[in-house]
Amino acid sequence: MKRRTFTSLVAGLSMAASMMGTTAMAQDDMRIAIVVKALGIGFFEAAAEGAEEAAAELGNVEIIYTGPTDTTAEGQIEVINSLIAQGVDAIAISANDPDAVVPALKRAMDRGITVISWDSGVAEEGRMMHLNPSSTPLIGNTIIKLAADHMPDGGQVAILSATTTSTNQNAWIAAAEEVLPNYPGIELVATVYGDDLSDKSYREAQGLMQTYPDLKAIIAPTTVGILAACQAVSDAGKIGEINVTGLGLPSEMAGCVESGATESFAIWNPIDLGYSATMIAHALATGTDPSGEIPMGRMGSITLDETGSAAMADPFTYDSSNIDQFKDIF
Hints:
GO terms for molecular function: carbohydrate binding. InterPro entries: Bact_Solute-Bind_Prot2 (IPR050555), Peripla_BP_I (IPR028082), RhaS (IPR013459), SBP_2_dom (IPR025997). This is Rhamnose-binding protein. With 330 residues, the chain is of the alpha/beta class. The chain has two domains: 30-134 and 270-313, Response regulator (Rossmann fold, 3-Layer(aba) Sandwich), CATH 3.40.50; 136-267, Response regulator (Rossmann fold). It has helices at residues 9-17, 42-58, 73-86, 102-110, 136-148, 167-179, 198-211, 223-235, 250-259, 270-285, 323-326, and strands at residues 4-7, 30-35, 61-66, 90-93, 114-118, 130-132, 155-161, 186-193, 215-220, 243-246, 264-267, 294-295, 301-302, 309-311, 316-319. The chain has a seven-stranded parallel β-sheet with strand order 1-3-2-4-5-6-14, with helices on both faces. The relative contact order is 0.14.
C-alpha cells in the first residue's frame, strides 16, 4: 500500500532523528519526496494530488510531500538534507534557486537517490532531468498575449513575479520580453517580485498602480501573485481599468473572472504535473534509461533534449466561457 506523508522541515528532521527506532513503511515501498517551493501554496497542493494518483497507480509507493515554510533556498537545503538522512529513493524538486540547492542534491545522488526537478528547474549538474510544465517560449508568448488581447489600443503593462531567483518565472519573463515586438503598442514598464508571498505580492501590486497611473494590465506568472494582484486591483476600485492576468488556478481565480478583475488567465494542470513528475522519478529510480523515452503513465512519454529537459503540455486559457467547468477540479 502507498501512503502519503505531509511534512514540514521540523517534522522531517524529527523523523530523521528517530529513524533507527521506527519502521515507517513496508520494506519494499519506494519513497518519493515531492519537494515544493513552500508549503501552503494551492498549486503545489494540487500537484501533490497528482503525485498521489501516480503512487496509487504504481503501487508500493509512498509520497512524502514536503518543503520549507517560505520560498528560500536555505529552507529547501535543510529539507533535502533531512531527506538524505531518511534514505528516500527519489527526490523531485521545484527549486527556489537553480544553483544554491545543487551541492545538497549532488550529495543525494552520491547516496544513490534519484533526483529530478520539475516546474522550477535545477542546474544540470544537480539533477538527472528537468520537467518543464510547458514550453518556455510558448508560456512567454501566452502571458503577453493574454494582456494584449484586451488592449486593442496598446498601453502599459507590468509583471509581478515570484522571487528573483525562480528559474521558471525568470525564463518565462525573458521569453515574454523577446516576443514584445510582436505586440505593437504594448509597453512593459516594470517587473517586480512578491516572493510568492500573498501580502508582499499585494503590496507590490499596489506600488505598481501608484507608480504607473496609466497601467492597463498586471501580468503575474505565479499563482500567488495573480490572486494577490486581483485583490489589490479590486480593493483599489480599478476593475475595468487594470486587467490582472497571467498564470492562476481556476479554483482560486473564479471570483476574479466573475468580478471582471481578470478577463482571462492560463495554466497547465498542476495535478498532471505532479503525476508526471512522480512517474518520471519512479521510472528513473527503477532503471529506465534517461537517454531514451521516459514513460509518464496516462500523460504519455517524454524524450529529453540536450539540456536533460522536456516539456509536459501546452498551457490552457480560462475565461468566463469555461471557468465554471474547472473551478471545482483544481
